[in-house]
Design goal:
- The structure is a single chain.
- This protein is α+β, with helices and mostly antiparallel strands and 766 residues long.
- Helices cover 19% and strands 23% of the residues.
- It contains 14 helices and 33 strands.
- The strands form eight sheets. The chain has an eight-stranded parallel barrel, surrounded by four helices. A five-stranded antiparallel beta sheet has the order 27-28-29-33-31. A four-stranded antiparallel beta sheet has the order 1-2-6-5, with no helix packed on it.
- α5 packs parallel to α6.
């Protein structure tokens, strides 16, 4: 999971405007010009006086329908114009044949009753000290959100929610600008503010769109790159300044404003997208290189990573990369697992289109992209989701359900339809908008159990008296069903550490509907075995074999992830006892065993070349270990070369992946040789073609070791040996093809007589 959370600084939460600023620049506005002396407008009469209460609600940000007060409205005797422009010296209505300066009501309000028969196509000439700017009046526009959008939001079924909520540059009623929409059902009022208003929220109150809880305002002239937040009046009348939950881009932390953005990216991965779902993932080669983007090569942007990462991963032969969360997060030390911007790739490395470029580059190199997705919780930052509109909204209203006991964060209210919609649409968003090929869902176990990390009296059972979080179950089922329906070829992967039944069973069969599940039990068992001295491993032999008892209960990934190489756990090679040669040898043998074992493979960055130190997000992998100037660089390059050959041989061997989830694709040959630290098994492809894997986890060469094999295969040849000298091994191998002998072994009538290298894994094929 994530590192310890520290509070992040918040900016602009109490931002106050400078006195009497000039109007900021806006797209489509005329350039400022010297103010002309305004002649008294003929026929401008005082507008009806605003009710004191309504005036107060408008100025204090508590008005639910500012469009009913501001803008132009036909009345008996003409048209009433009312404009709210704080710090303006004068406001003039201009239209064809019309120029009328409004009367100053004070507090930034300007109004007048003009003797017109209808509302003209007008603009506003706003004068500040020495400047005038001509702009469209935001309060003359109809709502820019459709009735169908509002209906789907109300139903909690808007699968493209990001098209209806958030900041969207658009043309509306023939005018360019940005539509701002936000869900805040408990707010007395909402105003949008940003650099276009010098962070003074007064001028831009939003309207409530009925019972949907959505607030909307179209701001003409505001375009891409504008910074903004929402000023929300809570139920108690206090104000809070919030980033947009649906923002597609955010400022670079520690700044916290949202950014208006629209994608201009032209994808070039049509071929990849067309064929990525041709073969079900559980019947396809699938080896994953997990990395933390910000520290893989510290200092590189998305576009710079696109120049280096695809070539590196392709050279190593991995089929996919998995990015630790890239959604915006305030504290870098959380590695992205404490998200504040669920719809925004982190701006630390570039723009959303820059991230698209990275994904596109990987696809064009033939590499799939998986992104970690974090629907389990969110941080408490006062400018983000926590009590967003003054009351629990995204989090559960019951504190016992809201507070996550492990990470100091808040859990989502999965039972609220709008929150469930926010998360389901978010999963679809990453797949559709960024072409990602998979979502690895973080901390699923913490979502599924009401008593997760909670003691007696700290949780409430569900309606049936159980500890299962039925709302979370429904969310995960809906998310998986929706993603698989809308995004062909995408795979969802659960990080789920318990024995929950049916994680990868389809939802119509009562399962959660994931495509794959991390096999945490296999990981813990085998690493425990690896950490023992070879002389003691015989007492822990079942740690290597027990995984096959449940190997077909789910569709598994075998994960050696970031979680296993941080917080004092040491790197993979440093977990292993013995001298440096034995550590590297065991490391290589383990990888050979892992790549042949049923299940997909995942390896965290740095472990592919056996770095000895723990990973740190501050400096990333120890690339200097591969520098030819370093005396032991060959040792590390040898391990990396092995990983390359493991992947290449794996991908070329259907027996290792075609029947990954079928029991008939596996057979034990030797599972009980605990005294020898040896085990052997066969893998079978759809056509019956076999691969034999033999591992010797003792530091001695075993000569003449009998391994029973199928009678139908006349010759076997070694296709991979982790003890080769080029990998840093001792070079014990079988250079010639081997012919089975009619000597029974392990219950089979014929056998191979092998020389098993020390601390090594050997693969043989017909």
């Amino acid at each position: 999971m994530s590192a310890a959370r520290q509070p992040s600084p918040s900016v602009r939460d109490e931002a106050a405007p400078a006195p009497e600023p000039p109007l900021p620049k806006a797209a489509g506005a005329r350039a400022p010009r010297a103010r002309r002396a305004a002649a008294p407008a003929r026929g401008v009469r005082p507008a009806p006086v605003l009710d004191a209460g309504e005036r107060a609600r408008l100025l204090e940000g508590r008005h639910h329908d500012p469009h009913a007060v501001l803008g132009a409205h036909p009345r008996r005797g003409g048209v009433v114009f009312r404009v709210l422009r704080p710090y303006a010296k004068a406001v003039t209505v201009v239209a064809k044949g019309l120029r009328a300066e409004l009367l100053d009501e004070g507090d930034g309000l300007f109004s007048g009753l003009l003797p017109l028969t209808g509302v003209p196509d007008y603009r506003l000439l706003v004068a500040y000290d020495g400047d005038e700017t001509e702009v469209h009046d935001p309060y003359r526009f109809l709502p820019a959100v459709g009735e169908l959008d509002l209906h789907l939001i109300g139903e909690g079924r808007h699968e493209e929610l990001w098209t209806a909520l958030g900041a969207r540059p658009m043309e509306h009623q023939g005018v360019l600008g940005t539509r701002f929409t936000v869900w805040a059902p408990n707010a007395q009022g909402v105003r949008v503010t940003g650099d276009f208003s010098y962070w003074d929220p007064t001028a831009h109150p939003m309207r409530s769109l009925g019972s949907s809880g959505v607030w909307e305002l179209f701001l003409p002239g505001v375009g891409e790159g504008a910074l903004y937040k929402y000023d929300i009046t809570r139920p108690d009348g206090s104000h809070t300044l919030r980033a947009d939950p649906m923002a597609r881009q955010a400022e670079v932390p520690p700044a916290t404003a949202s950014v208006v953005t629209a994608s201009q990216y032209a994808w070039q991965d049509a071929e990849w997208m067309a064929r990525r779902g041709a073969r079900p993932v559980h019947q396809a080669p699938f080896s994953v290189y997990e990395l933390h983007l910000a520290s893989w090569r510290p200092g590189l942007s998305y576009r710079q990573l696109a120049e280096e990462l695809p070539a590196y991963v392709k050279e190593l032969g991995f089929t996919h990369v998995e990015f630790m969360p890239v959604a915006e997060h305030p504290f870098g030390g959380s590695w992205g697992y404490q998200v504040t911007g669920f719809y925004a790739p982190t701006s630390r490395l570039g723009s959303p289109d820059d991230f698209r470029f990275l994904v596109d580059s990987l696809h064009r190199a033939g590499i799939g992209v998986i992104v970690d997705w974090v629907p389990a919780h969110f941080p408490r930052d006062e400018w983000a989701l926590a009590e967003f509109d003054g009351r629990p909204l995204y989090e559960h209203h019951d504190p016992r359900r809201a507070a996550h006991p492990d990470w100091g964060t808040l859990e989502f209210d999965y039972g609220r339809k709008e929150v469930r919609n926010f998360l389901v649409a978010n999963a679809v968003y990453w797949c559709q908008e960024f072409h990602v090929d998979g979502l690895r869902v973080d901390a699923v176990a913490s979502m599924l159990y009401l008593d997760y990390s909670r003691g007696e009296g700290e949780w409430l059972p569900n309606e049936y008296g159980g500890r299962e979080n039925l709302d979370a179950v429904a969310l995960l089922q809906e998310m998986n069903a929706t993603v698989y329906r809308r995004c062909p070829g995408v795979v969802t992967i659960a990080e789920e550490s318990t024995a929950w039944d049916g994680v990868t069973r389809p939802t119509d069969g009562g399962g959660l509907g994931f495509g794959l599940k991390w096999n945490m039990g296999w990981m813990h068992d085998t690493l425990r075995y690896l950490s023992k001295e070879p002389v003691h491993r015989k007492y822990h032999h079942n740690d290597l074999t027990f995984g096959m008892v449940y190997a077909y209960s789910e569709n598994f990934v075998l994960p050696i992830s970031h979680d296993e190489v941080v917080h004092g756990k040491g790197s993979l090679v440093s977990k292993i006892p013995g001298d440096w040669w034995q550590q590297r040898a065991s490391h290589r043998a383990y990888l050979g065993f892992m790549w042949a074992h049923p299940g997909k493979q995942l390896l965290f960055m740095g472990q592919e070349f056996a770095q000895g130190s723990e990973w740190s997000e501050e400096h990333g992998p120890d690339w200097w270990l591969l520098d030819p100037a370093y005396s032991a660089a060959g040792d590390h390059r040898g391990v990396r070369d092995l990983v390359r050959d493991l992947n290449r041989t794996y991908t070329a061997t259907p027996a290792l992946w075609e029947r990954d989830t079928a029991p008939e694709g596996f057979a034990w040959v030797e599972a009980d040789a605990a005294e020898d630290n040896v085990l052997a098994f066969l893998r079978y492809g759809q056509d019956g073609s076999p691969l034999l894997c033999v591992s010797n986890f003792s530091p001695v060469v075993r000569h003449g070791y009998r391994i029973g094999v199928p009678e139908a295969v006349p010759w076997w040849r070694e296709v991979l040996n982790t003890d080769l000298e080029e990998y840093g091994g001792s070079g014990v191998h079988h250079p010639q093809a081997l012919r089975p002998e009619p000597v029974p072994a392990q219950g089979r009538p014929v056998s191979l007589r092998l020389t098993l290298p020390p601390l090594a894994t050997v693969w043989l094929r017909p």
